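protien #1 (seq + structre)
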Amino acid sequence: MISAMKIKTTALALLTMVNVQWSMVNVPANAQQLKQFTLEDLNFGGKNYKQMSPETKDYKWWGDELLRKEKDDYLLVNKKTGKEKPLTDKQKQQYEEWGKGPKPVAEVKDHNLFVGDRQLTTDGSREIVYGEAVHRNEFGIMEGLFWSPGHERLAFYRMDQSMVSDYPQVNIFERSAAYEPDKYPMAGETSHKVTVGIYDVKTEKTIYLKAGDPTDRYFTNIAWSPDAQIIYMFELNRDQNDCRLISYDATTGERLQELYRETSPKYVEPMHPIQFLPWDVSKFIMQSQKDGYNHLYLFNKDGKQLKQLTSGQWVVMDVLGFNAKTRSVIIASNEASPIQQNLYAVNVENGKRTPLDNQRGWHRGTLSENGQWLIDNYSEPDVPRVINLVNTNASPKALTLLKAGNPWEGYQVPTYECGTIKAADGQTDLYYRMVKPADFDPTQKYPTVIYVYGGPHAHNVDARWHYASRSWETYMAQKGYVLFILDNRGSENRGLQFEQATFRQLGQIEMQDQMKGVEFLRTLPYVDMDRLGVHGWSFGGFMTITLMTNHPDVFKVGVAGGPVIDWKWYEVMYGERYMDTPQTNPEGYEKTSLLSKAKDLKGKLQIITGYNDATVVPQHCLSFMAECIKAGTQPDFFAYPGEPHNMRGHQSVHLHERITQYFEDYLK
């Protein structure tokens, strides 16, 4: 049941209960005189992209003072009036020194760890890696160095990947192509081993946590006690269904106790370190999905759960920090609507939630050091950007620092719509976005392209500007296409049942839901079902080929970028979380593999990859091509030399020109 404390549902959220939420129609009478977009305008690698993006301002907190960066200088912002003044020379000096304190500089050079002018390790190499993110950035890991409060100690990762197979990447830009292998642990194969070291700045000694044999274990979400004497870490087995929060003595590395354990018949996914209350260091906040949705729990330092702080059929999406004065934790959640992100203050003593924004749109917040001030940067479907300053101490009254104009003024802009359909289970609401040409005529029939991703930890539809529409959709709508985008089960921010429906059979439930989207399109008289295309990248590339080969009479044209073809070639951490291993789930791997589907391809399919993709390695698409050759089917193939999983810089413009032209040639 949704908590009785839930804030009143907004008009936007109410509208999501019906099929069409709202649309923005941008078709003035003189539409033929408006300017047309180019990919240089719309694509992030384009020459005009920056000026076509909503205006923004660069604010940052200097403790509890607000600064705005302008070119190479900073302006001090009055938090009551919003007025700005240049920093004095004295202030500039204070700002330059702020945050440095006694903290030495920790850095990694050639895989070795340095603190100040002291080299801590000497055996660093591509096989022994220090101080860098491990476990291929899964479990929320984005860094490998963790300073304690007061900067007395530095925790760091050490990753031994000498036992991991090399994937044979090749640099073709050398006179003779050079072999540049990448360590890539594939599902079911030998993985790396991680340990955690602690360097003491005063004693200049290093110890390692006595966590036992690191084989087939994941160490993640490292946190320090406020007094820097204890370090905490979530430890996960390779099967990722048994997670434990363990504490260690930071001076000896000795294991102290297990504070928390969570198991699951599917998987447990720790993504956030614990956070101690600044006003009571004997208690900490922990995030968990154990009740089906990601929520906050209050524990004491001995591991006793004191209470659940938030609850309901919605997700805590981020913890921004704390306001010690009001004894509150500041969070972002989708309580108001599954496609919104809004900001709240949660009182730790009574659980009361106070909204800190207008309860519409998609809000990102940044807290001051004491948590009493909040920068709220947000957009709504018809609002490009607003930046507000909010006082979190009381009933918030926002001071608007920026209200961006429409950067697309004077252009012929498509219509963006949002609504819901039922999933293949007949019960679950799925959110979609539809983009229509600016001169849309409901009596005409339009070629239609489904853009798909569909995988974990991502979504496509939310209440941002234009419902978070990708700029390429605007470009295609300008060329006379209808675009349809659906967030199927398996995507993020909808709770465990929604996300784990795809367990051990990636692509199957997702395909069923996407085909419900196709059924919906069939009911629309303006959709030409004889001209239906599909496009996606990465997991979306996998879904594109899955849809085209399982429903070859439905989809006429597809473009699959960086596609997974067989999950046995994907990396250990992600692949085994959702599919288990090829050894323990052979039926699932066989059912989801696209190799056997090469013979079923009928429509026009273009496969695109970065030639040096280290995420979805080229073995995927090349193996599919080999099967197509055997079967006599005829996909097209294009590679970007030297590029990784996504095309960088201006090459992205070239990529989207290529994608567009393929649909122009074969679907229109």
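ok now protien #2
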Amino acid sequence: MDSITQIWKKIQAPEFNPATDMNLVEQVKQVALTSQEPAKVSFGTSGWRGEIGSEFTLRNLQVVGAAIVRLYREATPELFEALGVKDFAELQKRGVVVGHDNRLLGHEFCEAVADQFAKAGVKVYYGGEMPTPEFSAAIEMLGAACSINMTPSHNPSHYNGIKFNPADGGPAGPEITNVITKLSNEMMATWKFEPVGKVDWELIDALKIYGEFLHKQGTIKFDVIKNFLDKGELTLVCDHVHGSTRRRPPFLLGNPKCLTTIRTEDDSLFGGIAPEPSSKNLEKVKKALDASQTRFRLGCIFDPDGDRIRFYDGSREVDMNSFGAIAFHYMATVRKEKGVVAKSVATSNFVNIIAEKLGVPVMETPVGFKNFRPWLSRSAKDKALVAFEESDGISGLNNTLEKDAQFGLLMALEIMATTGKNLGEYLDSLYAEFGRFYPSRAGFEVDKSLVGAPLVAKVNAIAEVAKPGAKVQVGTNEKTVKQLLTLDGVKIIFEDDSWMLVRPSGTEPKVRIYTECRDPDEKDPMFEAAKALFFRD
């Protein structure tokens, strides 16, 4: 019999036909429900992700569920503080929110984990298919202690994942996830599997709760959006790529006539594509919008768990590097909100230039949305008007501590309604005032022996030769280093505001390079210069 990995390769092959070959998917499901093979768990900020059937199985999800329950039973005072509860009894009373995206066996995997909580006397709320931001909203609105989100985000269809959020609704930090990893692997080999019966949980309407959360927080001006939609001057197209956001825009917007939703059918294989908000996947949105003749046009594509979004306005693609800057400028100048802007070190410096001229502090962090917690938390002294990262994630003022693609869509509509501009038109106005940046992202492989600490050390060594005032040859130009950041890899900012970031991969023999320049012809020379710094003698 073929291995699960081999079966998945057949499912993902171009010749796979859903009408005749779904028996292969049934084979995977059967193994995932019955296999007793252990797996190695590595639980990071984005949870644990594994191949369905070989690693991600009902048995192994029982283990992770039991490990999280044990985490609470054995927590130190410091760990309870990170979890946001005072003791195990508080967890039992406040409960856990459980749900999943549209992957294979999401419901069954949720049952396996929820059963462990229920047996420990913990109240369980079950929301079924839920996007990531709705877990954070549900924790806050229900007063729950934590959430279990069954999703691997934008990973291919053969993956599933499990993500844990503590009481503030944000991504769990390493002080929590390291313990989950340790306990899961400790219990994995000896776990005695028991079939899951009917789980005693309370069903919740996660979408309704999320809508109530948004209205309570008051950041989004729904009345402004409604008036805009009612005018009949907008074409709005949302591509859900068969993911968990598929019922959301009609509900949140009152099912307006201008809205077209695509790829909303049940399809846990995503039609054979990589389910991410990429330029390639935006083609269906572009085709629909390009045929429109309305004054205003907005298209977007979500990832399966609703924490990433990318836009198209009928004339151009608007990625998060650009939209984050638009949203910040709008909040600071049109809405006149007071606060800061938070961005990851790999994200465009376009917002830095805007914020500097507006006198607004920029909080630049290592890559990872968890790093925005100090400015997104309800108790933050300096609140982020917008927090975003170049990989299409965004949240903002008084919103969830998780990335929230639905918030991004609503913010885009409010901006258009208030300013009378399409996103591209708003972006052009910013270019006219602040100049333009051209971001780029690439990478290269290195010898396998460098993976881990040696690769980190080799990247960090770049900082020794790129201190402020140092000269770096970029093509035919010599650039002077203005600023050096070592938050996450090495980021070199030059006096002309162009920059390069060199980051090591933590798991692969790869180096990732991000660059941004004022001149589009400098993209390749910037990459080569960054590569040369890494390989210098």
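The first strand starts at residue 48 and ends at 51.
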